[in-house]
Each structure stands twice: as C-alpha cells, then as structure tokens.
Amino acid sequence: MNLKLTSKLERLRKSKKGIGACVLAAGVTAITMIPQSAYAHGFVEKPSSRAASCSQNYGALNLNCGNVMYEPQSLEAPKGFPDGGPIDGKIASAGGLFGGILDQQTSNRWFKNTIKGGANTFTWKYTAAHSTSKWHYYITKKGWDPNKPLTRAELEPIGTVKHDGSAASNNLTHTINVPTDRNGYHVILAVWDVADTSNAFYNVIDVNLVNNEAPDTVAPSQPTGLNASKVSANSVELTWKASTDNIGVKEYQVLRNGEVIDTVPGTTFIDKKLKANTEYTYTIKALDSAGNISKESEKLKVKTTNAIPDIEAPTQPKGLHSMGTTATTVDLMWSPSEDNVGVDHYVVYRENAGVMNKIGTTDNTSFVDKNLKANTSYKYVVTAVDLARNESSRSDVLTVATKLDGSTYEKWDARKAYNKGDKVVHEGKVYEAVQSYQGNGDPNWIFALSIWKPVLNK
What we know:
Blueprint: H1 3-15, E1 42-46, E2 76-78, E3 113-116, E4 118-126, E5 132-140, E6 155-162, E7 173-178, E8 184-194, E9 199-210, E10 224-231, E11 236-241, E12 249-256, E13 259-264, E14 268-271, E15 279-288, E16 300-303, E17 318-325, E18 330-335, E19 343-352, E20 355-362, E21 366-369, E22 377-386, E23 398-401, E24 410-411, E25 417-418, E26 423-426, E27 429-433, E28 437-438, E29 452-454
Parallel strand pairs: 3-9, 24-26
Antiparallel strand pairs: 1-4, 2-9, 4-7, 5-6, 5-8, 8-9, 10-11, 11-14, 12-13, 12-15, 15-16, 17-18, 18-21, 19-20, 19-22, 22-23, 25-28, 26-27, 27-29
C-alpha cells in the first residue's frame, strides 16, 4: 500500500472518538466492508422493539412496516457499533434492510412503550441463540430531534451486559438503568453482538419516558370488550378495547382461569396448546409504568372445539442460510415454522445427482452437514414435520460451497507485512492480498477490498 493511503487510514483510525465516530468505511475509497446477509435470529420482545410492534404476534401496533412484520428477528448487520455497524440514518433498519422502512423517523410514526426511568428490564426472544460476547444499550440524548433521521451523534450509552461466549439464551433478560433526567419520546437502541461471526443484531425501541416528580397513583381504566375472535381445538385468539391512563398504558396481563399467563403491549393475544373440548375463563388487566393495575375485565368463558384429525402441515421454513463453512462442513440455519398444533422436527435434504435426498433430522432450527468435499457446491432444502407427521412444503433451495482447504495458509496478522498474492486465513475464510503493504494493527483492514479479496470457491 502506498504511504499516502497508509497515512490517511492511520489518521482516520486515530481520529475516531466515542459515540459520534463515523464508520471506518465511510468516505474512504480503500476501505469497503464485505456485505453480510441478514437472517432471522433474535429481537427485543419486552418492551417491544419497533420491528416486533409491526408483527401481528405483538398486536400489529405499528402499521405499514413492510415484510419486517414477518421477520422482526432479521435486523442483522456488521458489529462494532458505534465505530462500526449501520451508517447514520439507517441504524433502525440495520443498514437499510426491508426497504429501510424502519428508518422513518417522526414524533408520531411509531408505537411507544411507556416506561419509567431507573432500572428497567429488557427481554430478548431468540429464534437462534448464537454464542454471544455482549449486549449494549443506548438512548437518545436530551433535546434530540425526533423528526430527523437517527444518528450516532444523537445517542449515548446507558449499559453493557458482557457475556461469556455461550448461547444467548443463557441471558434472556437484562436490567438497564434508563436515565431519569428526561421525559417524553426517546429511542433506545439495543445491540446484540454475536461472538463467532462478524455480525450483530440491531433493535430500536420507541419509548414514552415518564420521570415526573409526583408519584403516579392512578390506575388505568378497566379493559372492556374482551372477545374470542377465533377458536379452534387447541387455540383461542383474544381481542379487547384499549384502556386509558393519565400517563400511558404500559402493557396488559392476560389471565386464564385466574392465573397470569402472559403480558402483551397490544390488545390481542393468541393462547395456544390448549386441550380440545375444554372450557377456559379469560380476563385482562391493564398496567402503567408506575405499576398501577386496573380492575380486572369482565370474565369471558370460551370452550375449545372438538379435536379433529390434524391434516394441516406446518408453514414452509424460511430464511435457510449458512452460518459458516469449512473445507468439510456446512453449518445450516433457518427460521422456525408455525403449526396449528406444533412442529415436531425438521428434515434436511441435500441434492445428489439432481435428486434431493434426506440427510438428517433435527429438533432445532440448525444442522451441521459433515464429511463434505472441499471447494464443492452443495444444494439444500429443509421441511418441517408436525406431530401428526404432516410435512411442510420445502424451503427455498440454498446453494453453498465448502471452502478451499486452508490448512496450508497462515492466520492473518494485523501487524504483519504482506506481499501481493499472499494468501491467509481469517475467521475460516481465505483471503488473497491485492497489493503489498505493512499492517498497523487495525483489525478492519482484512475487510478492505483494496487490500484483501476473499478467495471464492469455483
């Protein structure tokens, strides 16, 4: 690399400061991050993230969201925030995913969770609980402009939860101290850093922050209009009218036979895995951020229908992708299917001589195919099977290639000098030097396409 370019990169690296730093790639010809595909793995469920509030499963509190309403788990982008990650103006959509609709930013565009400052819990829902290094949380500053695109400069850190590299499911809920020196509409950004990939998951949570000095002792109004809109042999879909509150309703408790079975931010709930031909009694309570609880709604008695033979297959598995490959393995993953009764397992197929052959089954949404040939392309599909052995339609075909045998290549060293044509291994991938240069310790240079190029399998 020429000295002029090296000097420019070094100045840029040293100039990065705190939350307002720009992404290293921005505006520098020599540094271009390798694009990463987004797949569904996890999101903040409580308080509901902007994407979760788009989903029918969480009451469709946000409308006109696009396809993210089906995949709130999918907001994945390169990690490294705030110095890396999505660019300013595209933070909420993790770099423009799903058409960038989530980046629309006005004071009244999105549903707001009413919360109080101080210790708050944030609970994640994982569809694939990757090994994890940390979660980190940010909030918009006092005086931020809610009618302008969200930027790093508008955010400040409020907490980090470090992890030991084990599965994210070992740490579902985090207690974060939300500032008590501001009120009204704010945005909280929650970032989940995966330990064994270069990516993270980005979730924004719209909140109505309440930090009034006078204690709130007024409970929300009693929920009314409780109704069972759909009833089957094993599920009941409930709807009710929204309660009102002097400050704001935070959530609703759903009670079945007198016991709380869940809390939801919206006014719909689907109770699943019920017994056929059985009567259940439901009530609803409304809660505000101060913990005041409304009167219980009127009771609603619902009887599930008689059981009938299950002939309904699970939904098609979506988002089949590879979490990584070696010279002899392919690590597959996909989003879970839905079923009227329940998914029992998944079947993985691999093409051989033009025919998809079953190679294994799994109870999880992941599967590692082993003993493969190096530098070879393989095609896969996955199906879901329920307890009645109904099998779903096949997923979209995934074509993925195993890596070159990298055993002869050394591991990349950020401080070492390399010559044009040298090949190295980094995070399981083989790279070839585009030009000669002297490293300075920057861990991002391996991703600069003007310095290194990934060696693609033929």
